Amino acid sequence: MPISIEDLNNVHIDVLREIGSIGAGNAVTALAKMLNRRIGMNVPRVEILGFKNVNEILGGAEIPVVGILLKVTGDFSGDMMFILELKAAHFLVNMLMKRPVDDLSDFSEMDISALKEIGNILAGSYQSALATLTSLNTLLSVPDMAIDMAGAILSVPAIEFGKNGDAVLYLETEFSEGSTSVVGDFFLIPDLGSYDILLKALGVIN
Amino acid sequence: MDKIIKIGMADLQAAKYPGTITTLGLGSCLGIALYDTAKKIIGLAHIMLPSSFQAKSGQNLAKFADTAIVKLVEEMTALGACKENITAKLAGGAQMFTFSASSDMIKIGLKNVAAAKEKLKELCIPLISEDTGGSYGRTIELYSDDGRLVIKTIGHGIKQI
Questions:
Q1: Is residue B29 annotated as a catalytic residue, yes or no?
Q2: How far is B143 from B148, CA to CA, in rounded Å?
């Protein structure tokens, strides 16, 4: 019987938070280099939410968000997903493209490509955190992106979690640059058989 | 004043006139809207997966197309609806990401729609209209005065089915 999210105890959650902290730390370093700015972050929060409340993530089901999805294959298989508020995505792209940070005009093709690259960097940061802690080797697919209502984007990880339980697990990290802060949610969605692999590799179950 | 009931993921609810039921941001999930035309009783389910056989934990009936429809009809008849008068509308079942890989994940929307249609047919509930598929999210509102289903999107307009 695979482990479901509801079975996770505090030790498991601490371990996941640690992956989140290291992953986010790597991501901050990478983003700071790319943007040539000082980026701060807080300690990521691990959240477990029942489906009925999933729509409250990021402030409501109808607010527009950017979702970046990557497939993970290798020793461990599943999906990784980042969700950023649309405002936050604009902020990052504008910094990267050296435009005024409050420019909210529609994304150009170049902007979308830049966002996917940010997705790549973030995913790579978490992937290497995972590899450091578990010595599981994984490969990431090219990122896929969608911009839509938070609820609709969140339905993708929620459905995958739904096959195995009634809750989703995610890490919420706040990145900041100067006085602006950006909230990003990170979902690691193991395939059904991969929960055990992950927790075994982390040494929390035998 | 209309009473607006909001339901979340893997959730369902029935209501009498003059109630309105809404669910926000349907992606690959599917909204199943049932309406008793004579008694003006509505029921809405926000399902996530096609069938209760697929998943390990089958306790939440509102999570699956097959079990949610049965449960919703029960709740509506408990409010006085007549099964013979119930009609259905579907909205949602989108594919949010276009991954080229043929993973299960991307077809889930279509599977949800197919499973709901099959169950409706089995229960002899006529499907009046649908707005399914595509690659965008939908917010839906089901009204009890005439059973209309209003669908709102980001960038794909508002429509009524």
A1: yes
A2: 6
Q: In this structure, what token pair is assigned to residue B7?
A: 């339901």
B63 CB near a chain A CB, below 8 Å?
A: yes
Q: Is the peptide bond before A2 cis (omega within 30 degrees of 0)?
A: no
Q: Could you report the predicted ipTM of this complex, rounded to two decimals?
A: 0.85
Residue pointed to by tokens 């992953």 = A23
Beta bridge partners of A168: A49
Of B7, B12, B14, B29, the active-site residue reads B29
3-class state of residue B37 by DSSP: coil
* Tens digit of pLDDT at every position of chain A (206 positions): 455 666 777 777 787 778 888 888 888 888 888 878 888 878 778 877 787 777 777 778 888 999 999 888 998 888 888 888 888 888 888 888 888 877 788 888 999 998 888 888 888 888 888 888 888 888 988 888 999 999 999 888 888 888 877 778 788 888 887 777 878 888 888 877 787 787 788 776 66
Task: State the Cα–Cα distance between residues B76 and A190, nearest whole angstrom.
Answer: 37
